[in-house]
């Protein structure tokens, strides 16, 4: 009967093409607005590593000034990153199966003179576990080993784009790349890695593309590297101005390191939290962590909320889009009612031939759904065009050409919204038409 | 087949009450062919609507095929209309954008019959009315007589026990009227009960039994239409 009702609906649409077109256009515009804004919001809230939600944790510690809380309004606000010395202390823990400190620097890369000129490149300093923790894909080679971390090997992982530029796209594993004044051995080339959110560092622009160069974190001291990302601190840079770089790193309260751990089970997470609490207590005895104990061991999802990766405006836009769809659907009630009442005689005939009120109700509701789904399909096309324009705009600011896209979730959402719009606009007219007294609308 | 007892149907407005059917009591046996006559406004169509479960009534009892159908749910009334009653209308009431096959198929779909059985019933019914070559024609491509034959085929396909015909020849010329009445006689000959509202004495003459309505009342249930002993004023009323 459903297929038959769809067939009747199709015939009905063809019977009054102008009115049907108007109704479909209304739904299409509503769906286009709602889906476009939903896709924009979805781009910002899409989980980049759903498989890692249960195990990857980001560590934050409140090492802030005992006299005043970390700026931000909330009483339990705390710095988004940790200090170098806290990172080094946490790294001694054996509870996490994997862990990495990380930050972003900017260094000069020197290709062979015959290939190109030196360029300043963003460089990610990280530990060996970084690549496995964030499911980084490789075109050639792999990340470096933990042993390389310990021995401060001068090894480098580069992006596919940089490999193309410096080595012509060939397998460059084993080749030498000069960075600043040192020669590095290429151990891995990434395979077009572009997570939806730069999950490992959400302290800046989380939609930025990943860095083209990756070096062992331990090189921060011998190369005297400084962050080019966000940093917060209080009480000066630490140590006297004449102290060595390493000594200053070891004594300052400046926070600029992101710290991630992989904890496979809730028990591991509990153990790690105990460890952090012990560490804070120990540091308090040494005169640090003067504020009430405050730390976070957060999942990726929580962190995305905390760092507001999705701008609040996207939520407002989504609400506007949905409201527009609802208004369009409500406006269609009158049009559909008029369309249905115009063929009250046909309903009378069907009732005389044995159609129950339920049959008539379903027939007209299916017609509303056919209209809504047709409108939804056209609306999806319009949304795809809108997102294409938005992507072109975003390409300039994030180097991403496909930030906003209609994935399966968005397609299902558009379908659900279409069905909802069909129900909103169709239930009342279908109910009214099925309540008509058959005798009074039959032509005799 | 059909038993109405003290049926009253009232149309009310804020100012006036109109008794469309006023204390009607009537029996029609299975297999009868009855002509219902009366002038405009006498309640013929209301009678047919009530008898066909298309309209409700305030007072009285209605038994159809042995079953009390006075106060049934909408679904139950729809099922009875679909399975036991067939309607033939003056204005044919075919669905304009369905072809002959699909029009005849409509009541069978509401009966949820399998496609194979529906096809056989439709083709058989259309053949009985002599329109097998017009199965894919739309109503607008048929003459009035052909459209009424499609409407009759729609009834035949459902194989009802009772056919209610409201002025079945009212929109047809003499020749086509005769064809339609021949068809109804053939259907009646197969044992189907037919109640036909008509203004036409010629058509009424084909029915062995006549019922005359006046102001919502049955004034004669078995009179010879042209006999002199009919109730006073009846001859004038039906002209």
What can you tell me about this protein's structure?
The complex is a heterodimer of chains A (444) and B (239). Chain A is α+β, with helices and mostly antiparallel strands. Chain A has 2 domains: 2-48 and 311-441, no CATH class; 54-298, no CATH class. Chain A is 47% helix and 15% strand. In chain B, strand 7 (162-166), helix 6 (174-189) and strand 8 (193-197) form a beta-alpha-beta unit. Chain B contains 8 helices and 10 strands. Chain B has a 6-stranded mixed β-sheet with strand order 6-7-8-3-9-10, with helices on both faces. Chain B has 239 residues and is an alpha/beta fold. In chain B, helix 3 packs across helix 4 (115-128), helix 4 (115-128) packs across helix 5 and helix 5 (144-158) packs parallel to helix 6 (174-189). Chain B has helices spanning 44-51, 74-84, 100-110, 115-128, 144-158, 174-189, 201-206, 234-238, and strands at residues 2-12, 17-28, 33-37, 59-64, 67-68, 85-88, 162-166, 193-197, 209-214, 217-220. Helix content of chain B is 36%, strand content 25%. The chains are: A alpha+beta (444), B alpha/beta (239).
- The number of E-state strands of chain B comes to 10
Helix-strand topology string of chain A: HHEEHEEHEHEHEEEHEHEHHHHH
Unreliable stretches of chain B: 225-235
The strand order across the widest sheet of chain B is 6-7-8-3-9-10
- Please give the oligomerization state of what you see: heterodimer
* Order of the strands making up the biggest sheet of chain A: 3-4-9-6-8-7
Q: What's the helix count of chain A?
A: 13
Rg of chain B, alpha carbons:
18 Å
Largest protein interface, residues of each chain: A-B, 26 and 30 residues
As a percent range, the share of helical residues of chain A equals 40-55%
Supply the helix-strand structural class of chain A.
alpha+beta
